[in-house]
């Protein structure tokens, strides 16, 4: 068949070929055994003497159970269950014809057999179907006893010597797919991240530097007015670095450090503080950052040191780490998307307005806000969106206005407010990939074909 296919693939129609097939039956191994030795019922019948035989002795024959049942159905034998010595089998007829073997011989010789009879022996697995495929080959319009293989390319030599005039050429297949390139592939998270980044840049935001995964407790917690006894600072929620375990105190701005300490212990800027003994050693502890808000705090402090305040819009998308219990929706490492806007006299209305603008660019228009609590924002709001597929409101992010106890110790003007919001990168990526278990998106269980086949991310904008 490969030779025929090769000839059919050649231009010029050397041959014409029509594929055909015929079906027939052949004997199985058990069927062939019947032809050689007789059917089970025939063998059993011949084993019954005229004076009869105890059933228990008869059933010692190979395949006696099947043979006994068939012989009883055909009326060849009978059984006397009340006979002396136990149930005894007797012949009901003097002789028997092995019709099954006759049918099998007819099938083997390709003779015509009624369909009902065929089905009977098929049920007993004595025959099996066989399909024979073949080609009916005839000469084509371009038939020849010699084959001239078509040229794949027109070469310079053919043009020079004129041999191209007598040659045939392969047709170009412009619909053929090219050979797949051996290259790396962007993970779906990176593709979705790139789309979110583009939306922020389109809105005039600048990207914050987020390459520092190891942070200290001061910028991760204390600068955000998060008390040192807060549960989030315990080892069951945060990963602590063992070496080096502490950041040198000289690394912190000393005057800012004192203002943060005073705000925690005694309050200020309209706050009573937390009324506890603030320890610098807790602030020095090195950790894997639990949120990118630590980067926002560093950037806002840097802005506060400028001679003149200028409004800013900033964003970050990067990894954070929390000592989470691993399950289908939680990992110890995930990505946080954060947007921050600093300007004079911003209020809750500005925050709600910019959230509507941001999420509209993501194709999400139905938003609802619920009051919430965060240590470093007041007021705070959870963001909900109506999920058309689930037919219910689902939480998609968190937001708020940074507290004065966080901003004023940095040195920002009193009339400057900072609004911020954040959401995870994994949840929208899982929805877009149709993945229910986050461990199938990140980690050793990731299907590499999913990574290779994932399309370019385009958010369905409203």
Structure, explained:
The protein has 462 residues and is of the alpha+beta class. The chain has 17 helices and 14 strands. Strands 6-9-10-14-13-12-11 form a seven-stranded mixed sheet, sandwiched between helices. A three-stranded antiparallel sheet has the order 2-4-3. α2 packs across α6 (99-108) and α3 (40-46) packs across α5. The longest helix has 15 residues, at 188-202.
Helix and strand layout, with pairings?
Blueprint: H1 2-9, E1 15-27, H2 29-37, H3 40-46, E2 53-54, H4 55-58, H5 64-74, E3 77-80, E4 88-91, H6 99-108, H7 115-123, E5 127-139, H8 156-161, H9 188-202, E6 206-207, E7 214-216, H10 217-220, H11 254-265, H12 280-284, E8 286-288, H13 293-304, E9 312-321, E10 333-344, H14 348-361, E11 367-374, E12 377-387, E13 392-402, H15 404-407, E14 416-424, H16 426-433, H17 448-453
Parallel strand pairs: 6-9
Antiparallel strand pairs: 1-5, 2-4, 3-4, 7-8, 9-10, 10-14, 11-12, 12-13, 13-14
Q: Which range best describes the helical content: under 10%, 10-25%, 25-40%, 40-55%, 55-70% or over 70%?
A: 25-40%
What characteristic shape results from the CA principal axes? elongated
Could you give the order of strands across the largest sheet? 6-9-10-14-13-12-11
Beta content comes to 15-25%
Question: What is the subunit organization of this protein?
Answer: single chain
Biggest sheet details: 7 strands, mixed
Q: What would you call the structural class? A: alpha+beta
Number of strand segments: 14
Spans of at least 5 consecutive residues whose pLDDT stays below 50 are: none
Number of helices: 17
| Ends distance | 57 Å
Mean pLDDT figure: 87
Question: Measured on Cα atoms, how large is the radius of gyration?
Answer: 42 Å
